[in-house]
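Hi everyone,

Forwarding the result from last night's run.
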Amino acid sequence: MKKIFTLAAVAACSMMGMAQNSVISKAAFLQEQNKTAEALEVLKSSFDNPKTTKFAEIYNQAGKLVSTQFNPELMKAAKNEQLDTAKFVSSLDEMVDYFTKSYVAEHTPDAKGKMPKLKFSEEDTRLLLGCQDYFFYAGIFLNQNHDKAGAYKYFNKHLQFVNNPALAEKRDSLLQAKAQNYAQASYYCSMLAYEMKQWDDVLNKTKDLLDKKELLAEAKIPVRDLYLMRFEADLTGKQDTLAYVNDLKHAIANIEDNQAFMESLVAVYNEKNDVKSAEATANDMVAQNPNSKSAWFIKGYVSMNLKHNYAEARDAFDKALELDPNYLEAMANKAYCYINEVVTKRQNGGYKYAGSNLDRVKGQKAVDQYNKELKEIRGYFEKALPLMEKVREVAPERSRLWASALEQIYSNLNQKAKAKEMEDLMRQGLH
């Protein structure tokens, strides 16, 4: 009796195998007749069948069937022809899903804990590897179709593809080999998140990128754009001034052309009338990196604009110029130190006679004082003159940096023709 049951079980298993083989054969037959949709439906009919055991083979075959629908759209893209983006995307998802399920099926033990023989895993892995970049393409195509949410989704799928179970052993090598490509995809995600005002995603994606400074240069990703997106997320999205200040500090430390960022940082402190924090920040920057021209510049900028300590500011700008003799912003602001100092002194009543007409000054003592004050005032502008003329010489295209200051300098030094030249330039419109 026991032998009969055994034979019956064998017969049952045989029948199950024959049924599955029949499904596979039928699907193959339909495919030979170019009836891909019908063939796929035949395979799908076995997915939920409790008697199905050949999942690896069935899913593998299903993936190959879907690839015949996907490949024509891929060829259109390669030839720069109009493609069906929706079909490209949906068939890509379906194809990858089937190959992944095929791989997983061969790495999942049966009810008795027995592992299946590996027949399709190697092929599944190879086919999946070939699919990775298609998610990147899908992101591009969807973005071209103005589907920002869809583009964001597929760029993210591209980034997450290394976590596919079939690629576990290749993950580290893929991350290294495709580092620039992943960085580019992350950058696109950042921009799309920014355009969709998904501020948390903006902050997360840009942070990941900014942690990879060398890679950004290799991938030619504009670092400034990353910071600008973060600033908007901080201020508009999260309304977090502290985060904004920290990002400004980070940008100043990591970007060479950081003048606008430094001015923005000082503006924040100035708006809050927080001279103490501004000074502490500047001192910290100098202490952390005494060989940073930017650190010395911001110290000078804070001293000049918030503390109104012009001597201290000039010393800081001199430190910056020692590190970079052609640092135009430091040169221009040192000149402004002289201008602002004498203007402030005049406004605060530091001069008794200067500014009056000489014919109204009575007595020799008063005239002497008048001349002394005038000489001192001229001295400030004379010190500013070579600095600002040097700025003009080096950067003639940046008239906004020097024209107004030179007009003021020339006027106070009675160089009327040159002053008028600056006036005309400003009237025409600064560069």
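Residues 351-431 form one domain.

Cheers,
N.
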